[in-house]
Amino acid sequence: MNEPKILIVEDELDLAQLLRVTLNKEGLNHIFIAHTLAEGEQLFHTIKPDLALLDVMLPDGESYELCKTIRQTSHIPILFMSAKTDEVDKLVGLAIGGDDYISKPFSPKEVAYRVKAHLRRAEYTTTPQTAVEVGPFTMSDDTEIYKDGQLLELTAKEVGLLATFLRHPNRIVSKETLFENVWGEDFLGGDNTVMVHIRRLREKIEADPSNPTFITTIKGLGYKLVVPK
After folding, report:
1. Which stretches within the chain are classed as H helix?
2. Does residue 26 sit in the same domain as residue 118?
3. Which of 125, 153, 188 is the last residue of a domain?
4. Residues 6+ apart with CB under 8 A from 79
């Protein structure tokens, strides 16, 4: 990924500028800032960013709506920032298509670290890989995955998860391995994150997500993609 463009939607002007300066120090220089939901949506369509950093509470609404808009056309990493620390709020952000949730107050350096980690992962998932055909699934380059010839509408993290399963069919993959491979971070605290994304992925590939036949849970060990050998 060359010179990634980052969209920051944050109504606190001082915080937005602090994030810009911190990201600039990390070598990320293409930073675009919006202060409202409407500005953020317009800027997203104009610049087509490689990553979005969204404050949840904005003067004209919640950025969850912007996340939904982005997900209609893009798989870019979306990171939420919020003073809301309840687990439910975090799960909502992940469930609608977010890739990370950062609680305020936070260290700008931590945000920069997370941004760079997500950009690295996004760059990896857009690197051409060997074509893979497993059961009804076909994956040509780790960015687009088809089921029965139909393109699956997946987020970047969902692509990463399913790609990992497709490269290890009928084998147990631990939550730790999934988190470290897809998020590029240590597993500490990542249990709920993996479960939420697995649930979302099942909703897109299973006939009955409540009784999955492809991605099965192996209690105490992890998950397995079950396909005919």
Report:
1. 13-25, 37-47, 64-71, 87-95, 108-125, 156-166, 175-183, 191-205
2. yes
3. 125
4. 51, 52, 53, 54, 98, 99, 100, 101, 102, 111, 114, 115, 118
**Residue 11 near residue 59 (C-beta atoms within 8 A):** yes
Last residue of a domain, one of 104, 125, 146: 125
Q: Tell whether omega for the bond before 105 is within 30 degrees of 0, i.e. cis.
A: yes
Tens digit of pLDDT for each residue in 134-171? Answer: 999 998 765 689 999 899 998 888 988 999 999 899 99
Alpha carbon separation from 38 to 41, 100, 101, 110 (Å, rounded)? 5, 22, 21, 27
Q: Maximum CA pair distance of the chain?
A: 57
